[in-house]
Amino acid sequence: QSGQWYLHMFTPEQPDWNWRNPEVGAEFDRVLRFWLDRGVDGFRIDVAAGLYKHPELPDSDDPEADARTRDSVNPLAWNQPEVHDVWRQWRSICEEYTARDGRERLLVGEVSVPTAREHAQYVRSDELHQAFFFDLLSAPWEAGAFRKVISEAMQDIAGTGSTVTWVLNNHDQVRTVTRYGEPATEGSGLGAARARAAALLMLALPGAAYIYQGEELGLPEVVDLPDDVLTDPIFHRTGSRARIRDGCRVPLPWSGQASPFGFTSGAESAKPWLPQPEYFAEYATDRALADTRSFWHLYRDGLQLREALPQLGEGTLSWLDSPPGVLAFVRGDGLVCAVNFGTAPTPAPVSGTPLLSSGPCPAGVLPGSTAAWWMSDGTESRAS
Questions:
Q1: Where in the chain is the domain with CATH 2.60.40.1180?
Q2: N or C end of the chain, less CB within 10 A?
Q3: Cα 357 → chain centroid
Q4: Start and end residues for every CATH 3.20.20.80 domain found in the chain
Q5: How far apart (Å, rounded) are the C-alpha atoms in residues 105 and 374?
Q6: Distance CA 302, CA 297 (A)
Q7: Contacts for 317 with CB less than 8 Å, ≥ 6 apart
Q8: Burial, 271: exposed, middle or buried (Cβ in 10 Å; 0-12, 13-18, 19+)?
Q9: At what angle do helices 190-204 and 295-308 cross, to 10 degrees?
Q10: How far out from the chain centre does Cα 326 lie?
Q11: Sign (positive/negative) of CA torsion 352, 358, 300, 116?
């Protein structure tokens, strides 16, 4: 009604703050202190590369780029250099509280930038502690694509002393079980096998690993939601189901044979905001805990080994020679991880029985769409 315009990068209900006004930064400092005074352990920061816009707000040569790529690629709207001053200020506030009681407060940023080298700038020693690195999430199921992402991250992010923060799923992207499978609407077959293998690969990498809710259950994307239940603003703004995100946001199944699968009390007023398909019964948590072959047990076993073995977590990664379609590397001084991206079995890089594998893995063999971990026997061939 005022006749004035305001800038919003997302929905009209989400106007952007003008971070070039110092009052905005001062207000956010107060917000951080409000929650830190109440004992929070840290903050997950949405769109951490998008606070500042180009100071002159010029028209873009390609205004549809973000919508077309489903990514933050407009150089006028994202990744402005001034944003790093904000994270230095927030880091200093968190360290002020840490100095009082010795308890670290964590800053984790959602950062989508063009290169790993630019990503590394957000996790410098005086900025964010961690920032989600999305390149593995967006990589196709190909050995070469995964190796390129990992190598660039290790060189440009870990090479600066920063932590790489790996993710395979999040609330904006198609779940791995469906993304890797053709087709895999209910999570069976090829997509599930590849998703299990990708999980062991991620957990073997140096740095931090984040697991999106339902990933540990092997949930597939829900692809058949009716139009009248969709909540994604993309759908309501465009009328198109292309690239909508509701399919990975359907509430988790916890127990039982029918919706709401323990997610709510089941009362009419407490139904999940998105309907759960009947086949979610196969993925319910109670069933996953009872089945030692489930995704849940694979993730649990991988996380327990990751905590117990000094070769995992932070540290070095060296590539091993491997057949086409296979990635193999050694961590530290003795743990080998290999992933067969193909469908035919290949010789394993280590002769013995694996510590852990994403599927059946006889000694000396690495089946297709399978990942495995071994303790090194010293016979692996290092890549030059």
A1: 317-375
A2: N
A3: 21
A4: 22-290
A5: 35
A6: 8
A7: 150, 154, 205, 206, 329, 330, 331
A8: middle
A9: 10
A10: 22
A11: positive
Is domain 22-290 annotated with CATH 3.30.390.50? no
Closest CA to 196 of 222, 223, 220, 163: 220
pLDDT single digits (tens) 119-146: 999 999 999 999 999 999 999 999 999 9
- Residue 131 tokens read as 């920032």
Q: CATH code for 317-375?
A: 2.60.40.1180
pLDDT (tens digit per residue) in 255-306: 999 999 999 986 666 789 999 999 999 999 999 999 999 999 999 999 999 9
Six-digit token string for 23: 């009052």
> What does DSSP say about strands 165-167 and 208-210: parallel, antiparallel, or unpaired?
parallel
Pairwise CA distance, residues 14 & 291, whole Å: 44
Strand intervals (E) in 58-204: 106-110, 130-133, 165-167
d(CA 243, CA 259): 26
